[in-house]
Amino acid sequence: MSATKKLWTGLAVLLAVSFAVLLWIGGEIHRAAPPMPERVLTTDGRLIYTRADIETWRQVWQSIGGQQLGSIWGHGGYVAPDWTADWLHREAVATLDLWAERERRVGGYASLLPEHCGRYSACCS
Q1: What is the pTM for the complete model shown?
Q2: 69 DSSP assignment
Q3: Domain spans of the chain, in order of start
Q4: Nearest to 49, CA basis, from 58, 37, 60, 61
Q5: Which of 30, 59, 96, 121 is most buried per CB count within 10 Å?
Q6: Cβ atoms of 60 and 52 closer than 8 Å
């Protein structure tokens, strides 16, 4: 058998084994998936939510990129939106608005003129 033929045979075996493992793991993940209830009730029988609600919530989560968080391979934190940074930014702007209104009685942080910045040197850059 020539060296080239051995390489092609090795590649074919590697691909076949790799895909067999992937199919087996995929089947195990599918079998171990949590059950999806048709409806969830309180102990006294009141309806909390249905399977349709779960599907709607899933679509909303996926529409904002949430499906990448907590992925099987654990790389979700690298590719999902950074909601922590967004929240911190909003919190910082809200705090600056409160400080600006308290001290200058103007329409908030964004409306401060350069001469009003004083302590908030970064606000007018």
Answers
A1: 0.36
A2: T
A3: 1-33, 37-81, 84-124
A4: 37
A5: 96
A6: no
